[in-house]
Amino acid sequence: MRLIIAEKPSLARAIADALPGSGRRQDGAIVCGDTTVTWCLGHLLEQAAPEVYDPADKQWRLDRLPIVPGTWKLAPRAKARGQLAVIRKLIKQAAEVVHAGDPDREGQLLVQEVIEYLNYRGPVWRLLVSDLNRPAVARALSRLKSNAEFQPLFQAAQTRSRADWLYGINLTRAWTLTGRQAGFDGVLSVGRVQTPVLGLIVRRDNAIRDFRPYPFYPLWVDLQVAKGQLRAWWTPTERQPLDDQGRLIERAPADALAASLPGAEGTLAKLEQNEKRQNAPLPYSLSALQVDAARRFGLSAQTVLDVCQRLYEQHKLITYPRSDCRYLPQEHLPLAKKSLTGACQNDATLSSWLKSADFSLRSKAWNDKQVGAHHALAPTGKPADFTALSNIDGQVFRLIVRNVMAQFYPPLKTFEVKAEFHLLNEAFRARGQSVLDPGWKPLFTTKEDAPPLPPLTQNELCRALNAGVEEKETRPPEPFTDASLIKAMMNIGRYVEDAEVRRTLRDTDGLGTEATRAGIIETLVQRGYLVRKQKALRATKLGSALVAALPAAVSTPERTALWEQRLGAIAERADDAGAFQQALIEDLRGLLGQSDADKLRKSLQSAEGETGTPVKRTSRKRSGGTRSKSTGRARFKRKTTS
Description:
There is one protein chain. Helix content is 38%, strand content 17%. With 642 residues, the chain is an alpha+beta fold. Strand 7 (96-100), helix 4 and strand 8 (124-126) form a beta-alpha-beta unit. Helix 1 crosses helix 5 (134-141), helix 6 (151-181) runs parallel beside helix 20 (577-592) and helix 17 (541-549) runs antiparallel to helix 21.
């Protein structure tokens, strides 16, 4: 018997449907001839609790830290014992096993840890499914790979799981116990991803709170040129009182110049005119989709992930959504017209876009070298029944289709002009843009660019008609929203002060992963560290106090981003898991030595922030099974799904 172990029931059903013959259902499995398909329910196993290694660690005590297991152990989740027993029985009868976890690091861990826990020693194959429609699953079944090829990916995921346990268990216990000494009766959860994300928001909130606005004074002049009129803006030099962004912070020089300008004559001293081509935005990764959906529709990152899971599992309208890639395999290009035609047929907006698509075009999105374990989000080609989709589901689906459709539109072509005029020995600049070919742009609602300038000629004369001074005020940084926070997590190097580390982080995946970022935000809200105020995410007093009391290295992104880099290197056989763990243990010893009850007491008393309390968790009905991936949490409870 061949046993296929899927990550979740929805995937198991899709696999069974793609196998020859009709499947016969039995307890926890589907039998299809000589192949049996069974499934996990998310994680069936979890890292064992500290007291499993030593009963003395059931009680939280500072003098027992750090807790470091000698031999790592997994334990069945209480609500997963029944399905684990089903797999245990089936795997004993199996001549070969097919690992059918999701095509990513955590998917590799989720199924393989069950196979190893049950001590299976026979051949194991790997099935990679990113599209639940029957033809795609059938193709995947014909392309099985040896699971041994994915051992480094499993090792990286296993290392991550153990490291998160070490980091979360030890630091959460240390600061919770220190909190009790400081008079705080509650758990202070610390995680290697969640706490740096909290730190980003706390520091942004502090910058907003500490911001002191001041006025600045831009000066404009309307100029008559040979073939029309335009408005230009004064570029003051360093001899004027300027801030660090070159803005004039005293009004008198601007007023004096404005009074002298009407009637003054000058010349066009510098002229840059360029025709530019801009290719369409690439298809979406999950994070890029979360950013756009938050901006356009005000959706939280978790809502977008939930929508994508429904579109993938329940409706089978899109490919695997938890992707960090924005490119598509070259083999998908010949199928694109058919899949887009199917995706668009029941929607007037999508159908109108389809009519203008040119399928003879080929964008840079089709690139095998950029595709790793999974590719960008794309429609499967199944026609959408929009009456069965919620309004939000339909909006997100249209975005996904649109970004793939845009690959078959020509580039946006613009004519851009930058002009610098000299009058009264001062420089005035103007810029404009005209659209030569809108290309893909009509598919996107974008902000208006600079209006076009009249035709200009180098060294032509100009004359000032009117001039004026505006009074503006500097503005504080914007608070984080779901969109801007996801973008910050994707581009975490921008928030790193050390230039060398910033260069190192430039090519990493950022803070968290595609699958975990939404969950990290929701975890911080649930734990009372963040609240939502309209679209803004703001830190509570508790969240601010925790960040103030922790060592700076715990609440800044350098460590966890470098973790992700090393985990990626382990997956590529370029780093050693044992060396990574040993370095982490030494790091933990140093951090634990910095827990300070007096510092925490003062931060709890003086913290500023929003009023917030932990949110009572409620079970949410989901379409199909899901799994909890790494959020850097101290408590490793995983959701049960059906």
